Amino acid sequence: MYRSRFGSVLLSWDFLAGLLAGVGTALIPALSKSAQEAAGGILAAVGGIGAGLAALVLTALTVLIGALGRPYRTLLNAMPTGLRGVFRPYVIVIGVSIAASLVALVLCLAWPLIVGVAWPILWAVTSIPFVLVAWALFGCMHIIQQLIEHVENNSHLERLEERRQRALARRSGTA
Fold first, then answer.
1. Which DSSP string do the residues of the chain spell out, in sequence order?
2. Does 2 score more than 50 pLDDT?
3. What is the mean pLDDT of the chain?
4. pLDDT for 118-168, tens place per residue?
5. What angle do helix axes 82-114 and 119-172 make, rounded to 10 degrees?
6. Which of 70, 73, 48, 71 shows the shortest CA–CA distance to 136?
């Protein structure tokens, strides 16, 4: 679909949705004094959400690894990107989630120093964790869809392999 690895990430629907949601959300503390007062706690919550998302995606990756049967792994390994290509979206979302958590927690601690700056700077600074956590949230939707597809494809391939084995057994007279 996309020509480069970089393009496949930055032109993905989950990144673009996260960018719009995060930049839009960051306008609220940039323009509202009452939101600025609450922003330190909100940033702490964003840090927790990022860490939680990283754990969730790691769990989904573990489920995927456990669900892949030998025929499907063989098929995936025959593809140009192999298993590494299957795992790549999970690793990206985990990395984005961790980055969201760390940036949000640093901003939470630095909030008393940041709160007095001009609104465009405040907007730019607070956009970073909000974009990252929104991207990670939309990325979770993306990888859950992929997880479902892989489990369905694996199941289909296992059924085909069972039929093939039965046909070979009938042909050889051992059925």
1. --SSHHHHHHTSHHHHHHHHHHHHHHHHHHH-HHHHHHHHHHHHHHHHHHHHHHHHHHHHHHHHHHH--HHHHHHHHHSSSHHHHHHHHHHHHHHHHHHHHHHHHHHHHHHHHHTTS-HHHHHHHHHHHHHHHHHHHHHHHHHHHHHHHHHHHHHHHHHHHHHHHHHHHHHHT--
2. no
3. 90
4. 999 999 999 999 999 999 999 999 899 988 999 899 999 999 989 999 999
5. 160
6. 48
Residues present in the chain in total: 175
Q: Is 47 within a domain? A: yes
Q: In terms of residue numbers, what domain contains 17?
A: 5-147
Predicted TM-score (pTM) of the model is 0.85
Please count the structural domains in the chain: 1
Q: Looking at the domain assignment, is residue 17 inside a domain?
A: yes
Residue 71 belongs to a domain:
yes
Amino acid making up residue 44? A
Q: Which of 125, 137, 139, 97 is nearest to 12 (CA)?
A: 139
Residue 13 domain-assigned (yes or no): yes
